[in-house]
Amino acid sequence: MSERRGTLVALGEGVYTVPEVARILRPTMTEDKLRYWLNEGLIGDPIRRGYRGKRHLLSFEQLLQARTIQHLRNTLGFPLQKVRPVIGEISALVFPRLFDDSEGQEPRFIRTPEGEIGVFDGVQTYELVNQQLMISEAVIPELNHILYETKRDWERGEVPIERFPRLVSNAGIVAGSPTIKGTRIETSSVGYLAHSLGVDKVLEIYPHLDREAVLQAARFEGTLPLAV
Q1: Whole-number percent of the chain with pLDDT over 70
Q2: Residue 109, helix vs strand vs coil
Q3: CATH class of 164-221
Q4: Which of 6, 134, 153, 156 is the most buried (most CB within 10 A)?
Q5: pLDDT at residue number 7
């Protein structure tokens, strides 16, 4: 365990349950999918594997891995059963290099001289075994953009929440609770207050927030504010 990860775990930060990760990565992520990927070893070992009623505990790194795999799968356009060997190789080759805090060139996808897709880490090229899948060279820029987003979010310690541009999941917040971007104000608190008191009252309580941020927090939490 890295020093950074160990510190977060000790503080109770950057630690997520499977339901929390699925909620942050919705609408394309499900709890069943995450558990399957855990069992398949695609996103590494959890901080704690669930047993006897205790939940799996996942790291911020695993949250990013799950999102990255989902995006790669969507870009490649194949069912997971067919693309599973490629995703497995990407997990083994790319993730250790993406989450390495030392200086060095970030991994990127390239077309090898043999016409296959490979991963270049600045020193060596690793060819992916594509199991006869026809992976178009046209997707390479998109695949590299996915890696760029993963590295960016790892370094800044927060993940944007799809369809809610004012919200993020920040690894520095206890249990990675979703917050309003640029603040430590959790969406659960804002959603509850908006439902109970109305948006205008929330804006009085948090004068530095704007109406759209409050509305996005309430919608994310599934609460209906009394007034908008």
Answers
A1: 83
A2: strand
A3: mainly alpha
A4: 153
A5: 47
Q: Residues 172-178: contacts with CB within 8 Å, 24+ apart?
A: 172/8, 172/13, 172/14, 173/13, 174/11, 174/12, 174/13, 175/12, 175/13, 175/15, 175/16, 175/17, 175/20, 176/13, 176/14, 176/15, 176/16, 176/20, 176/24, 176/60, 176/63, 178/23, 178/24, 178/220
pLDDT at 129: 62
Cα distances (angstroms) measured from residue 79 to each of 70, 83, 85, 118, 175 = 11, 6, 12, 20, 32
Q: Tell me the torsion sign for CA atoms 103, 11, 31, 185.
A: negative
| Res 216: pLDDT | 95
Q: What is the pLDDT of residue 11?
A: 43
Q: For domain 3-161, is the CATH number 1.10.1660.10?
A: yes
